[in-house]
Amino acid sequence: QVTDLQERLRRIPNVYDNGPTDGTYDPTLTAAVARFQLWYGIRGDEDGVYGDDTRRDLESRTGG
Q: Please, are residues 13 and 26 in contact by the beta-carbon 8 Å criterion?
């Protein structure tokens, strides 16, 4: 599941460019999730937390 998140974030320009896809939810990934949330105005999840609202938005932008 984390690897899927990493792969999807890499498809969004300038959010997680060349970030690892090793399945580790590390500070780099947390920062990328927070950046995605900020840039796309996602509310409902804590900063850097890959919750339901963030997941739905990311999946809609990266092909479900």
A: no
CB 9 within 8 A of CB 16: yes
The parent domain of residue 22 ranges over 2-61
Q: How many residues does the chain have?
A: 64
Comparing C-alpha atoms, which of 20, 27, 28, 25 is closest to residue 51?
Answer: 25
Domain count of the fold of the chain = 1
d(CA 45, CA 32): 14
Closest alpha carbon to 6 in 16, 14, 60, 47: 16
Segment 1-52, tens digit of pLDDT: 999 999 999 999 999 999 999 999 999 999 999 999 999 999 999 999 999 9
With tokens 């990493």, the residue in question is 6
Residue 10, token pair as written in the block: 């890499």
